[in-house]
Structures are given as structure tokens and as C-alpha cells.
Amino acid sequence: MHAYRDCIAITAKSAGATVTENAVSVRVRATFARPKSHCNKSGLKKTAPLLPREDVDNLAKAVLDALTGVAWYDDKQVASLQIVKSYGTAGATEVSIAEFP
User: Fold this and answer.
1) What pTM was computed for the model?
2) How does DSSP classify residue 59?
3) pLDDT tens readout for residues 33-70
4) 25-60 b/e with 16+ CB inside 10 Å = b?
């Protein structure tokens, strides 16, 4: 989990994230690569899970902790939070941060 947090922080810094004192709205979209074991020759197995196992609250905690000191001083500044998890062809985490109205 530490490598995941470090990657988020480094990517945010390189994208130009700066620390704000304002309240923010955060949207996280976590896409997980579907394991090969979920598929057979004809496609997706009927027994394959619809969603990744990872808990959305743990995803939120990892992202918010990673961005503390990078995009905000303290994650108590996050006034709105949306977490979306899904399977895709490749793993990725997209984070959008906006000033809270």
C-alpha cells in the first residue's frame, strides 16, 4: 500500500498539484486489471465477480493520505468524496480535485 500511496503523491506533484487551504471535492476512479482466472476461452466466466475485492473505504484512505501535504494540509479539508471502483483492461487510479463550492 505504501508504494501505491507514493505513486499517487509523485504523480500528483508532477501534474502540478499544490497545497490548498480551501475545502475540496475529490473524485477517485480506481480501475483494476481483471485477473486471467476470471476468463475462459469464450470470455468472462459466469462466476467471475462483478467488482474488485478492495474496499472503497480503504481506497479512499490510501488516496487521501497520499495527497496530504501535496494537495491539502489535512484530509479534513475534503468536504465531498466520490469513490468508484471497477475492472478494466489495465490498472489505473484517476483522481480529480476541485475547490468545494
Assistant:
1) 0.88
2) H
3) 998 889 888 888 888 888 888 899 999 999 999 999 99
4) ebebbbbbebeeeeeeeeeeeeeeeeebeeebeebb
- Per-residue pLDDT tens over the stretch 12-31: 999 999 999 999 999 999 99
Between the CA atoms of 3, 8, 9 and 12, what dihedral angle is there, to the nearest 10 degrees? 160
| Nearest to 23, CA basis, from 68, 77, 75 | 77
Beta strands in 2-60 (DSSP E): 24-33, 39-40, 43-44
Grid cell 483494476 in the structure block, residue? 32
Domain boundaries, the chain: 2-89
Burial class from Cβ neighbours inside 10 Å (0-12, 13-18, 19+) for residue 83 reads middle
